[in-house]
Amino acid sequence: MNIEIFRMINDAGKEFEALNPVLVFIANNAIYLLAAAVLIYLFSRKPGNRLMIMSGLVSLILAEVAGKIGGMFHSNHQPFATLADVNQLIEMEVNNSFPSDHTIIFFTMAVTFWLFKRKHTYLWILLAGIVGLSRIWAGVHYPADILVGAILGSGFAYLGYRVIPTINLSSKNKLTGKEMKNL
């Protein structure tokens, strides 16, 4: 089923060639938009934004470590390296594509934004989904790589949201649930 879904999405790039430059741009460059958003939130004056970014970055590190451990137990090369007639739109060296690092990064931060902000952050989750789709479209990931990356990113974002704000690193009191909602 993984290969069939991959073929369906990747072959769409052969049929709708006009979309290829847009999806390749998203697959390669949306990460810079996310990095800019992280920096803007980090250096903003709203105190809750720094907590959100710290939570997201800790969650991201844990999700990436979990992804690397998962990749040690399940390894597969990119579709362009193992399947015939793949519409490969991004040049890259062959390595383990499981799970997708781009998807882990995007879903960790997008879900963190959503959990902390709850306003206008559906766009980040939508962008995370489009990034995952674009990586399949470009021939560099299987759907399972994307799905596991999304699950790891989302799961660790939720864990970070629940745990990081409760850690007392200074003499200030821990945030209560009500205070977290007001951030």
Keywords:
183 residues; Vanadium-containing Chloroperoxidase, domain 1
* Secondary structural class: mainly alpha
Q: How many H/I helical runs?
A: 8
What is the H-and-E element order?
HHHHHHHH
Low-confidence stretches: none
Instruction: Tell me the number of structural domains.
Output: 1
| CATH topology category name | Vanadium-containing Chloroperoxidase, domain 1
Estimated share of beta-strand residues: under 5%
Question: Helical amount among residues, as a percent range?
Answer: 55-70%
How many E-type strands? 0
Q: Give the overall shape, derived from the CA principal axes.
A: globular
What would you report as the Rg, rounded to the nearest angstrom? 18 Å
Query: At the first level of CATH, what is the class?
Result: Mainly Alpha
Q: Distance between the terminal alpha carbons, to the nearest Å?
A: 43 Å
Q: What composes the largest sheet?
A: none
Average pLDDT taken over every residue: 88
The CATH architecture classification is Up-down Bundle
How would you explain this protein's 3D organization?
- This is Undecaprenyl-diphosphatase.
- Pfam families: PAP2 (PF01569).
- InterPro entries: PAP2/HPO, PAP2/HPO_sf, UPP_Pase.
- Residues 56-161 form the Phosphatidic acid phosphatase type 2/haloperoxidase domain.
- The chain crosses the membrane at residues 22-44, 51-73, 98-116, 123-140, 146-164.
- By secondary structure, the chain is an all-alpha fold.
- It has a single domain, classed as Vanadium-containing Chloroperoxidase, domain 1 (Up-down Bundle).
- It is 70% helix and 0% strand.
- It is built from eight helices and no strands.
- It has helices spanning 2-15, 20-43, 47-73, 79-82, 101-117, 122-137, 143-163, 177-181.
- 36% of the residues are buried.
